[in-house]
Design goal:
The protein is mainly alpha-helical. The protein contains 9 helices and 2 strands, in the order H-H-E-E-H-H-H-H-H-H-H.
Amino acid sequence: MRSPAARLIAGLAALLLLSACDRGAETSTETASAAPDRGDDGAIVASTAEDHLPDWLSPTDGTDPARWLAGREAGHPLPADAAAVRDLRESLDRARSAFVEDKRMIANRTVQLGQMLSEIGKTESYRGLIDGLGAIAALRGRHKSLYGEMCQHYYNTRAQGADHATALARLEARERPEIASPEIAAPELPRQPGGQP
């Protein structure tokens, strides 16, 4: 019979394993083979291994999200200074200021959205998705949007047959209802002689 301490340790271990399942935790060999890179704060962190791209970036993964995303799109790891990596880094930086999620989660959701679009024959570039959705979220100003929610609305619109530009226009109309149907806007009140309505 196990002691209470042994049961507690076993229970905690099981909880850790279960919580890692939906986060795409990487294996210790992936961590060990990761090359150093610079994080947002300039500290050296783990980066995408030269010969392997994980399926998802876990919360503890120090991989540069732009490098991982560019590598996933290219089908193989890219150097940190590749043009595609720099472009996606800029896109993620802009998106980060408009969305609640961090760059890692934006990158994960972008890959997920890309896979879903591919399954219905409507592929889009990762940068096009991030920049398009980020521009719409920027309309909210200091009120940040949820990237995952916006991705789901975008996907639903695309699955209904809309092209990329139409899906973005519909999302923008959702964020700014006044552009959806300007004819429904409240009529202007007549002005009184003193300039007051």
